[in-house]
Amino acid sequence: MIVPNSSVVSPSSNLDHNLRDSFPLLSGFSSTRELEASPIYAELRTEIDRVLGGTVHESLREGSGSAHPYLRATAWNLERGLRLAGIVRVLQEHPELSQSDLIFATELDYGMTRTQNRFVARELSAALEMEYAFAPCYMNLNKGAGLEANSPGENTQALHGNALFSRFPMREAHSLALPNGKDKMKGGEKRLGCQRAVLALVDHPLGTLRAISVHLDAHCTQGHRQHQMKLILEHLEGWNPSLPTLIGGDWNTSTYNSKNAAYSILGYARRVLMGVRHVLENHYPYPDRWFERHLFREIERRGYSYRDLNESGVCTLHYDVEDLSTNENMGEWIPDWCFWFIEWALKKQQGRCSMKLDWFAGKDVIPYPDHPPRVVNGLVDSEGALSDHDPIVLDFLVDGQPGEGY
Question: How many CA atoms lie within 13 A of 138 on its CB side?
Fold first, then answer.
């Protein structure tokens, strides 16, 4: 097993900067509007925009892809890369995940002290011998949220973003900015930037595929997530629209309007009144049925499918009231008494609940016969879960591909 380490050096790229000395001044503002009206931001804006608009695309591929007669895609929220050695281990050794041709990865750090200032995307690419494209979403002005704020040391590049990995050559890698659903300068974790989809053309042996790694906002309304997806689909209409397409990632389909604490609390109370067991069985695993239906209808209206590309009703994120890290993070934006309410509501469920947040959608993409889409759970080691999300896997053909071996 190749274990990543901090000695892997970033290539010279347009993501490197010398803005760190300005972070204390920038983090002193309480809103984005206030920040953008300041002289210090006016002085630094060109450099900030340059970094956050950049994309690193590098090939560390070895070989020519896997030998199975289909493409295997994995989408996984890596939770910043906090457990990078374990993540690499399962992506190298797991009987299914190790055969991934494409990885749609979300939440990867570059130069954050919580992940030992590593360039997570590049270290993962080197360990897996895959090509990668990484785009930063946020420039973090402090060390992070919750327990991360106590990480030893200081951030270097202070970036956090999304990525694509491929065993085949990629072209035209770029990112698409998605508007924020919440002011990222309000609250304990202060950030510049916004979520970005990472897009590239993948040249596999039997054709070319458009691949898009997507992380939609969590702290926003359901309608805002629909709007973010709409912007992605509109962008695709003007970028090689005739090609088969696969979109994958963490869409944060929690069923909640989480734009602020008040909406989240009211939404949770509504679900308790609907019946906790009813919601856990009929809504959290099926957000497309009602609460997030407009997002999924937007996908289908534009000619994309998702129903046959995902394992129906199987959740990908699991919450436990005993999870100190998650509770510490949530405690920065909801009152302490809410945790009593949550614990009371989940008492009959042993303090646990699960949600379906991670998805694939595609156009001219066909699930491989006898290989149904699936969620891979139970990825743990002696320290616990490798990520707060389970990866999802899809074996597929593209329209017109005969399904013969490469």
Answer: 24
With b meaning 16 or more CB within 10 Å and e meaning fewer, what string describes 218-254?
bbbbbebbbbbbbebbeebeeeeeebbbbbbbbbbbb
DSSP H or E stretch at residue 45: helix 39-52
Ordered DSSP codes for 261-312? HHHHHHHHHHHHHH-HHHHHHHTSS-GGGTTTHHHHHHHHHTT-B-GGGS-T
CA–CA distance, 382 with 363 (Å, rounded to integer): 40
Within a 10 A sphere around the Cβ of 120, how many other Cβ atoms? 28
The type of residue at 203 is: D
> How many other CB atoms sit within 10 Å of the CB of residue 69?
15
Report the predicted TM-score, pTM, of the whole model to 2 decimal places. Answer: 0.95
Cβ atoms 219, 182 nearer than 8 A? yes
Cβ–Cβ < 8 Å for 270, 236? no
Contact in structure between 226 and 178 (CB atoms under 8 Å):
no
Distance CA(236)–CA(170), nearest Å, equals 17
Nearest alpha carbon to residue 357 among 158, 107, 122: 107
pLDDT values of the chain reduced to their tens digit, one per residue, 406 residues: 444 443 444 565 689 999 999 999 999 999 999 999 999 999 999 999 999 999 999 999 887 666 789 999 999 999 999 999 999 999 999 999 999 999 999 999 999 999 999 999 999 999 999 999 999 999 999 999 888 989 999 999 999 999 999 999 999 999 999 999 999 999 889 999 999 999 999 999 879 999 999 999 999 999 999 999 999 999 999 999 999 999 999 999 999 999 999 999 999 999 999 999 999 999 999 999 999 999 999 999 999 999 999 999 999 999 998 886 777 777 766 778 888 889 999 999 999 999 999 999 999 999 999 999 999 999 999 899 999 999 999 999 998 655 443 4
Residue 91: count other Cβ atoms within 10 Å of its Cβ: 25
Instruction: Calculate helix-pair angle for 293-301, 222-237, nearest 10 degrees.
Output: 10
Tokens linked to 78:
């890596």
**CA 170/CA 134 separation, integer angstroms:** 12
Domains of the chain: 20-253+357-398 (3.60.10.10), 254-291+317-355 (no CATH)
| Virtual torsion, Cα 4, 199, 114, 392, nearest 10 deg | -70
